[in-house]
């Protein structure tokens, strides 16, 4: 290791893949709830709106602390922040099932949200550090798949596990898995000290910017706000639709395992959009085109899926396209937030602010859709909520296009 360190920072796609695995593991904790939600509703007597808050509460940490954790990650180290987040996820998932009450479950979901944020917020900046620039758009496209990959795994495996055991077992299995991923990151990903020493050599006499200066640079950037709010418009509707699908299909008479499998197909399809988003960016497609395409498709597909009286197979195709083409959006926004950060020192805080707005969207989306469904007596008005978010996203895609033209940012 000393000879490698003497030549400068270590770069390898393998390290980035390990970071991706850690992100998938963190997202498993977010998506372990939907397949368990019908059982939790019965066991704890939860209403539909309470279930919506339980789905979204995991985003409480990101909604309130994203920017702050971005700042802390720059100080304590990106790799170290990920390790701390994995530790918190392991502990929360292991302890949560020991207290079978609504209050305890909500508390540990909030702690899991904080751990999730500490893993996924520093990850794009760490990937940028670990790979060569030529591979960045493709690796960030892969990173954008961490949620759909987790969705596939936990909805299929979790639904199967829950078919013969209780939700507590799923929580404990994921605690053990997260502990194993913690060890993988600790043992394989190079320490922050390697890159700090290199950065110190590259900027020998430069004084590091103060924390307040970094925050001000981040929040005064119009481009960072556009990227962050675009992610809010995307995440709010995706989380609401995919998060409630197991419950929707169980009400329609499908078994929990079948509902979980159907939802896994929908959630996993998002990986296709993320993957191709990174590829198309690499080939020179305009970011605003990809973002607008995603939002237009989400708005139209949600209208057909929920407003029209169609069969379940056709509805499944519509929500599949809703998720798959919508996946173009996060892949593009992860790339843009790296490119449009005001400076290299503000990369983590820019990602943190985007993650904070993303979490806000995931927090407000499910309760709003649940509230509308309660008023309407069914899910047929869901398209109104998703349509409004899509219109906002299309508008911001156009504004981002103008910003990119003015900046002359290369793809």
TrEMBL record:
Listed Gene3D superfamilies: MFS general substrate transporter like domains
Keywords: Cell membrane, Membrane, Transmembrane, Transmembrane helix
Pfam family, one: MFS_1
GO molecular function: transmembrane transporter activity
Tree of life domain: Bacteria
Subcellular compartments: Cell membrane
GO CC annotations, alphabetized: plasma membrane
Transmembrane regions: 12-31, 51-73, 80-99, 105-127, 139-163, 169-186, 224-251, 257-277, 289-310, 316-338, 359-377, 383-401
Membrane topology listed for this record: Multi-pass membrane protein
Major subcellular site: membrane
Annotated Major facilitator superfamily (MFS) profile domain residues: 15-405
Identification of the protein by name: MFS transporter
